[in-house]
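Tutorial handout. Part one gives the primary structure; part two gives the three-dimensional structure as tokens.
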Amino acid sequence: MSSVSGRNRHLESVISVLLLSTLFLIGLGVFIKQFDVDMGRFGIDTTSAGPLLEQTEPNTQEPSLDALMPDGFKKLSKTETYNSENLYEKINGKAPLYTESGFEKLFTQRFISNDDDNLWMELFVFDMAAVRNAFSIYSVQKRADAQMLTLTAPAPFYKTSNGAYFVHGQYYVELVGSTESTTLDKAMTAIAENFASRTTVDYEKIAELALFPIKDCLPGSFKLYLANAFGFDGFTDIFTCRYKLGDETITIFLSKHPNPQDAQTSTESYYNFLIENDAADKPTANTTLKDIGAKVLDFYDTTEIIFSTGPFVGGVHEAENQTAAEELATRLFDKLSNAAKTIKE
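Part two.
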């Protein structure tokens, strides 16, 4: 009897071990599956090394960077893809500017000369989801030593000593070279033209750019601040443009609102913001500005002007010369008031 009981107990022990092992394997499988999902959610790639942090099915609408390789060059790296969660790894310090402006993805790749290993460049293609977003990033980061180039497409397009920058639809694109080089300059231009011809985009005209006066405008000086223009968080979708009057370089600005009431509210809010930051009203001899109730202020020895007409807000930002500022503000008012009349009609 004791021998039989021993065998039964041994059999029960074996069955228990098998059951526990089975349960352990099931639990381990569930854990691995859940762990894998969590890693994907946080953009961590467990299948390959490098900065491609999220494995996804190929998107036929994504730009093919391999096809952009110019003559005389070869690939130096594979295409790398970044999203809003890991963009900081590629452009540390600037990522918030992009992610707060509609950024979706960044595609990068490097090309190197077949003849000279010292000549290489990196291509950055930022998908900003909309042309206004792309233009804003392009404009607010425009280099001081920029040289505007006139191309049929892409446009706008400018170059620096070792780089090229342009907008094509929803894409903001940068090309950064290893050094100053005419060979790299030509290759960058070829890439830009190739990108524009191969990449189909929906063109959305930025109507506000046509609202600026033409005379004395500095070409290529337009900027779009999607938010926090001039340090004021109530100023969104603000367009600016620089003008040259004699020796004076002056910035004027405008924005379009849903209705005249919103425009007036925005004008008053910016005026109050300036006053709260030590600006002071100052007299003007300009009859047009007086008649429309424009605010002319002294702001740390510069002139600020702000007004509204119809759904538009307009003004001058930090001008050194009050007379020149008032002249430009008058020109801008005439242009915006005519546009407001057209909207009413």
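Part three, for discussion. The chain has a mean pLDDT of 85. The helical segments are 2-41, 95-99, 131-140, 182-198, 260-276, 287-291, 322-344.
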